[in-house]
Amino acid sequence: MLNKYPLWKTLMVAFIVALGALYATPNLYGEAPAVQVSGLRGVEADAATLDQVKAQLEQNNIAYDNIALDKGQILTRFKDTESQLKARDILDDHLGKQYSVALNLTPNTPDWLASIGGAPMKLGLDLSGGVSFLMEVNMKEAMAKAKAGLVGEFRNDLRNEKIRYRSVKEDGDNIVVIFRKVEDLQAAESLLEKRYRDLVLTTDEDELLIKASMTEQKQKEIREYALQQNITIIRNRVNELGVAEPLVQRQGKKHIVIELPGVQDTAKAKEILNATATIEFRLVDTEGDLTSALNGRVPASSILLTDRDGKPSLLKKRIMLTGDHITDAKSGFDEYSRPQVNISLDSAGGSKMSNGTKNNIGKPMATVFIEYKATDKKDAEGNIIFEKVEEIISIATIQARLGKTFRITGAGSQAEAHNLALLLRAGALIAPITIVEERTVGPTLGAENVQLGFKAIMLGFAFVFAFMMFYYRAFGVVANLALGANLVLIVGVMSMIPGATLTLPGMAGIVLTVGMAVDANVLIFERIREEIREGKSIQQAIHQGYEAAFSTIIDANITTLIAALILFAVGTGPVKGFAVTLSIGIITSMFTSVVASRAVVNAVWGGKRLEKLSI
């Protein structure tokens, strides 16, 4: 029988639309203002912190709806923004510098809906608010790090070729190598000229020294490399933060723009983004006198460092391995349920670790955490001066020759181990960066954008609804039902996909989808009219209208979908937001315009003897 769906097919259409409606429902409940308290530098909020927060709120007569401790964070919900702001100011004053107190918005989704994965759509920076950073890369530190790297490479090359030298050191913009014999100087000159063609070498046989300086091209390459690598590493860190639709891009010669939509815990974001963290592995100097070192007599081949508790240790200056060779780092627990970080190295790093530990089995090795912190001081050129902070994480005895994978312990808590693994996995910044501008988009402005965007969508729908009902009568009602189902499915799919984010351009994509969705129904209905004019029966006209228009609809939508996928692949920020909603809208519109609308047509007009059709 023409134009009759089997029961299972009708039920399938109804189920898909109902499922989309179910997961679109959380967007109707809205969000409640909240204050989030989270620890900094690995500190976790605990039951004592929770009691402290409750006491402060009750002492200041601030009413709250709900307060909960989850995964080391405290989230307090309020009825209005006035209470939220007042609570934030009070808690910020009383909790000290160990905790971040940030404004937040938490969904009002019912527990039963949240238990099956129901959650509202994530909104972009322009809709939900968030934070935008302008960060500056310290190029002076990048150059200093490059020169320090060359000093180490010179020493290794000369040592490997058995060329004797007195010292290799930095001297201003130059690297100076001093020798004892002319023969060693000449051999070194020949070696360095072959291996470092981008350096300018100046030889002084009277002073028995070689001066090496970087060409302008080499310095330019180092600055460009520092900027590009920092952008890559920051992107990795943003991904680790779980921010949807982030924007990370360069601005000028030494600036990076970062937009984090929906981020309320700005202190946490700044801690992760701004950290220039890495680790070094050094042998403990067991032969040196620690007491003498504490009195200022540190051996020339050693350095004096302390752990987090202030306990000093004497370490060898020579670095066994740096964090540059780390390819992966994951936090976990050891056999005694203590936090640890499992580390994987690249082949060069595995080789260095293997060579460094094979002759030192039974000796203690220290894991040193290094971080650069911005100070309030600036140099003569106006660059912010960074302070190098070195801290011993752990000292462990080398039990066997280590390779490409091993573990380090000593982190104070699981949160600190997680943060350390995050920073090591994302990579150490090539040069320190500092935030020169921070811009916050408040939720009020975002709410206004949502309201205006929603108004635009509703107006678009209203005009299309009116036109379709006027021009196609009863079949126009079917098209309008399909359009409504399409909007519900778009919202439902956007809510179900973890990484999908609705932006203001994304709303424009929804409006465009409305026009494209009704396009398919116009093609079908016009084909039905054409078939009726040619004298075919009503049922044959309906059948032929859907069948003949299907290939045209598929072709038109597939080409648009390809364009949307290309936009998503090469675009950033707002362009991606537009491409996401357009792609989802194209797929859902093909389902609602062809399959769902035909299910309604078949249910109302299918299998009946009809003399005329309201189209």
TrEMBL record:
By what name is this protein known? Protein translocase subunit SecD
Provide the transmembrane region boundaries.
452-471, 478-497, 503-525, 546-570, 582-605
SecDF P1 head subdomain domain spans which residues?
Answer: 305-431
Tell where it localizes: Cell membrane
Keyword annotations from UniProtKB, A to Z: Cell membrane, Membrane, Protein transport, Translocation, Transmembrane, Transmembrane helix, Transport
Gene behind this chain? Answer: secD
Mind telling me which GO cellular component terms the entry cites?
Answer: plasma membrane
The GO molecular function terms of this record are: protein-transporting ATPase activity
Q: Which organism is this protein's natural source? A: Litorilituus sediminis
Instruction: Identify its membrane topology class.
Output: Multi-pass membrane protein
Protein export membrane protein SecD/SecF C-terminal domain boundaries: 434-601
